[in-house]
């Protein structure tokens, strides 16, 4: 009983204990924030990579590709008919993209795809700006994952329209009230931005009350103490009054509101158009019956490389017409603002481009004699969220790229120089809802099948090279693994830095023990045992960990879940965008946290409190009561 | 009357730098139940050490210091008997229990816990053995006992005050109340008036005398003040680590 009692009394009546609590609090908060944001990163990267290239990829690393891909796809579909949803071949050509209008040239991975099957295998269709995301608008909202099924789309359109309308009403309301505030002489009474931060003054005041209480009947403190108290008091009052007056003094919130109105309006308009389009074409009875009815109305089902008529000069030979191509959004020709919006002032719908492919010979060298260039028209752009893909990929029609890369010949089959057409990869999409474990199992079965297929088709690949079969996360492992490693490394570094917490707890507890020598003697004199005295200080450490831990978890989780609001607030107070979307890949800072991770850090805080108190507790327990009580 | 506590051939030496200094050199002492014994001696004569050994705060050496500066085990083993039980066989837990229930300590410098108020300081020994989960049910009677005790010492209006807000005399009265909360058979006082002026010291002595006379409290008191010693039933003089003259019998039946 005395252990618990003395622990609580030491906790509430010793001011110095504020510092270890503060250190635990801040450190835990930092750990939670950093690991949550890094963890969010890993999740986003994984999400962006999933569905990028199907579930299973069959490929090899010979630049010259491999043959009989159509036969392989048919055989696979037959063999795994109950597992495969779709397959698509890919041909890759390394080369350049030249924009004659600007005389700019970029390195490009020219990727030959079949838009129809590619869209069945991956979410290629959903990454296209003109053909999927925003046909009517130039302000875009690039949600990396858009709904794909009809039901999802239907729900999505309704939900978007509702939410946007609500947001729009709210924004208009705020705008109007602020507008009238600004045009009238009276200062604004309502602020769209929640001025919660004056609450920061409350802990300061609480600290003062804590420091000033129970002063009756005791000698006054030093002048310095008074000076600091006044300083803290003034600081608290300043924070409080600033919080109240800031919006009046600096009505910059107006800029935010204007911006919010613009965004909300655009969003609402877009959603309304989508929704109205859907409504207008709603069949009698108000329900879509055929599965793809709604999707067909809203967006073209099959993306295409079709060139708009405006891009073809009048009177041009139709046979000589250029093909369309689709470029990744991260090519330097698209600039990006701090909010992450891409500048689409360039009209990509009919911009000419010259693509050059360097064919690679069977021996792996460059076939300089056959370097091919062709005129294209950029008809769309693609945003997958994976930087490496978006910054180098140019998609073009499959067969065209095959010809340019020297992987297909138009010579007749009887010609001795004829060879079967080749591709670089075959992407496989499994039936929806296949669990990750099954994917790995199917990959193994498929691997056996493919190896068998290769041995039965001589000349399919370069001798000794064969084909690899990998799941998407195996193929992207290095990329995802890098981000994962970064998270682990930062966590470890932070963990090492957190050892400082142990040292701080140790130091302060050691100070307390040294100061409490006499009291420890008294406790022993009235019968307190050695282990009891040690337990008082261990409990004390545990309580410090507990209080600091609870505060750290609450503030850390609040910070993480409000990261974007806080970030926005800092931007509008300082004009500085910390999360510069022109640099970073994702539009929002990750704001989810892993409860198990948070729990683990909380337990670690408790452990830190106890471990930090271990040596001081030991020292206290071994204190000789005779020495302790002998002198004043 | 039987011996409440009996000290037999007590030796104790301390390290003073490189040398070992004998403080007690074979002290025999016994205190009967209901007796008020004063130990007198000059500073450094070992009277506080003797009290600490009697109160199980400290342990005696095995014997005197020999010519080589080492402890030579004595033929009669140094031992402290409490109600004829040797303390050396009790172990740490038993000695802790003795200090909680059978001995009450009063020190020259009061030694109250500064973070606790008067009531909490007095209750501290009562909390030693009480498990935390029983505190809810048993706290009230103990608290009432403490309140009665504090009131009897005239500190009823000082309950919530911290030691730093009390005068010396008040602090010492709180310390006595703390020593008595578990109704120990033996009260050990180490210069209880040493830090007080004569008048306040007298009030403390009055408290102790009243306890002794009215409740028959056994008291072992250390002092260097002959006036204080004169109040005791028996006075023992310590000099050079030995009892200089046998106890002067102040009352019939003394040794």
Give a quick precis of the structure:
Chain A has 632 residues and is of the alpha+beta class.
Task: Name some characteristics of this structure.
heterodimer, A: 632 residues, alpha+beta, 6-stranded mixed barrel, two-stranded antiparallel ribbon, 21 helices, 11 strands, B: 255 residues, alpha/beta, 7-stranded mixed beta sheet, 4-stranded antiparallel beta sheet, 33% helix, 25% strand, globular, disordered C terminus
Silhouette of chain A: elongated
CA gyration radius of chain B, whole angstroms: 19 Å
Order of helices and strands of chain B: EEEHEEHEHHHEHEHEEE
| Number of helices, counting only DSSP H or I runs of 4 residues or more of chain B | 7
Total DSSP E strands of chain B? 11
Q: What distance lies between the first and last C-alpha atoms of chain B, to the nearest angstrom?
A: 12 Å
Uncertain regions spanning at least 5 consecutive residues of chain B: 249-255
Going by helix content, strand content and strand pairing, the class of chain B is alpha/beta
Number of strands of chain A: 11
What share of the residues of chain A lie within helices? 40-55%
**Structure annotation, total helices of chain A:** 21
End-to-end C-alpha gap of chain A: 27 Å
Largest interface: A-B, 33 and 41 residues
Average pLDDT figure of chain B: 86
Helical residue percent of chain B?
Answer: 25-40%
Rounded mean pLDDT of chain A is 77
Task: Give the oligomer, counting copies of the same chain as homo and different chains as hetero.
Answer: heterodimer
Largest beta-sheet details of chain B: 7 strands, mixed
What's the Cα radius of gyration of chain A? 33 Å
């Amino acid at each position: 009983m005395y252990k618990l009692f003395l622990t609580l009394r030491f906790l509430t009546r010793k001011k110095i204990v504020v510092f270890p609590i503060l250190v635990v609090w801040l450190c835990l908060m930092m750990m939670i924030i950093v690991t949550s944001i890094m963890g969010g990163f890993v999740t986003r990267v994984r999400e962006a990579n999933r569905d990028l290239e199907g579930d299973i990829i069959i490929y090899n690393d010979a630049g010259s590709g491999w043959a009989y891909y159509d036969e392989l796809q048919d055989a696979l579909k037959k063999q795994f008919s109950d597992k495969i949803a779709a397959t698509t071949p890919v041909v890759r050509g390394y080369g350049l993209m030249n924009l004659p209008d600007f005389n700019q040239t970029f390195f490009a991975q020219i990727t030959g795809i079949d838009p129809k099957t590619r869209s069945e295998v991956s979410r290629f269709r959903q990454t296209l700006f003109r053909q999927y995301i925003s046909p009517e608008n130039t302000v875009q909202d690039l949600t990396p994952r858009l709904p794909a099924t009809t039901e999802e789309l239907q729900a999505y359109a309704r939900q978007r329209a509702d939410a946007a309308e609500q947001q729009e009403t709210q924004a208009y309301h705020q705008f109007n009230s602020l507008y009238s505030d600004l045009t009238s002489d009276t200062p604004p009474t309502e602020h769209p931005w929640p001025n919660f931060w004056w609450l920061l003054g409350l802990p300061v005041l609480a600290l003062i009350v804590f420091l000033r209480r129970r002063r009756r009947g005791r000698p006054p403190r030093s002048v310095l103490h008074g000076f600091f108290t006044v300083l803290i008091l003034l600081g608290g009052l300043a924070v409080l009054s600033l919080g109240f007056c800031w919006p009046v003094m600096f009505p910059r919130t107006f800029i935010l509101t204007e911006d919010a109105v613009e965004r909300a309006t655009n969003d609402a308009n877009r959603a309304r158009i989508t929704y109205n389009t859907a409504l207008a074409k709603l069949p009698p009875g108000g329900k879509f019956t055929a599965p793809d009815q709604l999707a067909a109305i809203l967006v073209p089902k099959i993306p295409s490389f079709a060139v708009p008529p405006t891009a073809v000069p009048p009177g041009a030979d139709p046979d000589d017409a250029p093909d369309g191509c689709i470029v990744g959004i991260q090519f330097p020709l698209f600039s990006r603002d701090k909010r992450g919006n891409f500048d689409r002032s360039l009209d990509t719908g009919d911009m000419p481009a010259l693509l050059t492919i360097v064919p690679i010979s069977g021996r792996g060298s460059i076939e300089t004699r056959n370097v091919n260039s062709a005129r294209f028209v950029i008809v769309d752009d693609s945003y997958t969220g994976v930087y490496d893909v978006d910054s180098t990929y140019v998609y073009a029609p499959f067969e065209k790229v095959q010809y340019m890369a020297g992987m297909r010949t138009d010579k007749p089959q009887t010609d001795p120089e004829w060879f079967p057409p080749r591709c670089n990869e075959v992407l496989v999409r499994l039936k929806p809802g296949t669990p990750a474990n099954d994917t790995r199992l199917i990959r193994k079965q498929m691997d056996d099948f493919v190896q068998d297929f290769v041995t039965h088709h001589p000349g399919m690949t370069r001798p000794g090279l064969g084909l690899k079969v990998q799941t998407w996360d195996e193929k992207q492992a290095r990329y995802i693994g890098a981000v994962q490693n970064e998270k682990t490394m930062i966590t470890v570094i932070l963990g090492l830095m957190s050892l400082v917490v142990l040292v701080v707890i140790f130091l302060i507890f050691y100070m307390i023990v040294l100061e409490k020598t006499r009291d420890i003697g008294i406790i022993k004199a009235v019968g307190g045992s050695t282990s009891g005295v040690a337990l008082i200080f261990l409990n004390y450490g545990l309580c410090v960990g507990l209080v600091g831990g609870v505060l750290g978890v609450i503030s850390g989780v609040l910070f993480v879940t409000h990261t974007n609001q806080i970030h926005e607030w800092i931007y509008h107070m300082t004009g500085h965008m910390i999360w510069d979307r022109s640099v970073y890949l994702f539009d929002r800072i990750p704001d989810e946290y892993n409860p198990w991770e948070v729990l683990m850090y909380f337990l670690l805080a408790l452990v830190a409190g106890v471990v930090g108190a271990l040596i001081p507790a030991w020292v206290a327990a071994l204190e000789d009561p005779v020495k302790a009580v002998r002198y004043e | 009357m039987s011996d409440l506590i009996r000290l037999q051939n007590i030796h104790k030496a301390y390290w003073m730098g490189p040398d070992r200094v004998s403080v007690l050199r074979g002290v025999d002492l016994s205190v009967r139940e209901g007796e008020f014994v004063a130990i007198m001696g000059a500073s450094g004569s070992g009277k506080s050490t003797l009290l600490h050994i009697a109160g199980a705060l400290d342990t005696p050496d095995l014997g005197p210091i020999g010519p080589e500066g080492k402890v030579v085990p004595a033929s009669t083993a140094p031992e402290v008997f409490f109600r004829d039980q040797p303390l050396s066989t009790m172990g740490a837990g038993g000695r802790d229990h003795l200090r909680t229930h059978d001995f009450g300590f009063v020190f020259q410098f009061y030694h109250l816990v500064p973070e606790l108020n008067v009531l909490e300081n007095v209750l501290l020994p009562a909390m030693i053995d009480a498990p935390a989960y029983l505190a809810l049910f048993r706290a009230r009677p103990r608290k009432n006992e403490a309140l009665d005790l504090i009131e009897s010492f005239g500190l009823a209006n000082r309950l919530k005050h911290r030691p730093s807000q009390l005068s010396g005399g008040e602090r010492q009265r709180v310390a006595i109340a703390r020593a008595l909360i578990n109704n120990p058979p033996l009260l050990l006082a180490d210069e209880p008036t040493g830090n007080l002026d004569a008048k306040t010291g007298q009030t403390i002595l009055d408290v102790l005398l009243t306890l002794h006379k009215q409740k028959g409290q056994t008291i072992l008191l250390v002092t260097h003040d002959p006036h204080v010693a004169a109040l005791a039933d028996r006075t023992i003089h310590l000099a050079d680590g030995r009892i200089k003259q046998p106890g002067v019998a102040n009352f019939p039946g003394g040794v």
